[in-house]
Amino acid sequence: MPGAPFREFGASIALVDTGGEPLLVLGTVLGADGLPLADAVVDVWQTAPDGRYDVQDVDQPTHNFRGRFRTAADGRYCFATVRPVSYPVPDDGPAGRLLRATGRHPWRPAHIHAIVSAPGHRTVTTTVFDAADPYLDSDAVFGVKDSRIRAFAAASDGTSRLVEHFRLRRA
Hints:
Elements: E1 22-31, E2 41-45, E3 66-70, E4 76-82, E5 87-88, H1 94-101, E6 107-108, E7 111-117, E8 124-130, E9 149-150, E10 153-154, E11 160-163, E12 166-168
Parallel strand pairs: 1-11, 1-12, 8-9
Antiparallel strand pairs: 1-4, 2-3, 2-7, 5-6, 7-8, 10-11
């Protein structure tokens, strides 16, 4: 959904308290040469703990669990959220009939979406999957790549952490 608001370094993309396990996502955006990219944009979104995106749920505020972050001079970005959850794709139409006909379930594994961009570089659109999710090997939309699976580390303060670095190629 275009137009997600820019948020401050470390701000939460959860606009209302919906429960869930606190998660801090942090990392860097680097160029192909390995040098940090200042002012790159990390645009992220995910479902709420009920498994629905804000556009699917009239009770969620617009842009809940969405945000854009500019990297600092050293290429770092950081935002707070909650650990993503598995959710089913709508299965009441043709997709559901196809899934049932092939003996498949409608579940997507827990993930966070990201579009990472910087002037003079190729934009990367990707997804980061939670290594602990039971649907990694049977994603309803076949979207999981081993290279995009990450372990979320538990911290002593009860907040999990996900460290994700992005490397952009020159345009």
